[in-house]
Amino acid sequence: TAMYEAKRTGRGRYVVFDPAMHERLARSVATEADLRLALQRNELFVVYQPVVDLQRGGPCGVEALVRWRHPQRGLVSPLEFIAVAEESGLIVALGAHVLRTACQQLAAWQRSLGAQAPASVAVNLSAVQLRQPSLVAEVQRCVAEAGIAPGALQLEVTESLAAQDETARARLREIKALGVRIALDDFGTGYSSLACLHQLPVDTVKIDRSFVSHAETSDYHRVLIEATIRVARTLGMDTVAEGIETPSQAALLQRLDCGRGQGYLWSPPLAAEAVAPWLLQRPPQRAAA
Ligand code: C2E
Ligand code: MG
Ligand code: MG
Ligand code: MG
Asked: Taking the model in full, what pTM does it have?
């Protein structure tokens, strides 16, 4: 790539960039303006990926994942707009919308499906949201307005976020005190380690997909998964394996005593209307050894 001097900043430092970088910058600026409109125009919606109980078999919950239907660009991945939403502060409004929607949706499933409703709904939280002192009251209000049990809501935070910052940990403890459960998302990819796990106010550890995908071919990854599950169990925490795509991965994770699983083997994230049919057909547990 042709690198060239782009600009001299006020502080006298040189910023060098290439055309691809300019392209990305222009795109993210467009995304921020568009994202602001998207919130007003209701272009954001929530899909739900089933989570299954690996030991007993059968569905046990769902994870809420945000989607954006852009009028020109079509479906935009959260991997593309969550970072932009975080940088611009829009994540606070976006996150509140997802949280409220997910709690209301769980209440609706409980009304229509009774005992067949998902036992819990998981919602992803960004570091920016965790820095807002108002988050705790917000979570409490969403749960109360929906009329769901606090224990039916699980909030997912990434390990670096939960581990690094004492303010964040204190906020998580306040949320836990409401009865809401906390999961450590993408475990294995961040800064923290098994040695820090006992300091974190979490109920569940989610083993990252990158470990699951190497579990059968790499001793290192498999042993790390095994150790994570054993340490988590010792601390009274449950475990979820992310990104299970094959029956043999499911069987391995089941053998390693992982509590729950999530992945394309069972289902991709589904539109809200597609969840009840999926639950009612109760697909056979293909992991059964
Ligand atoms: P995550 O929380 O780790 O969610 C799991 C991601 O893995 C989802 O991607 C899901 O669609 C994908 N996935 C699930 N099973 C499989 C599988 O078997 N194979 C593969 N290849 N992928 C699988 P998605 O929906 O694109 O979300 C990506 C990330 O964006 C999420 O990762 C989460 O960090 C973030 N995100 C999504 N929705 C929200 C939200 O409402 N708020 C915040 N703050 N972040 C969100
Ligand atoms: Mg998650
Ligand atoms: Mg995850
Ligand atoms: Mg992940």
From this structure: 0.90
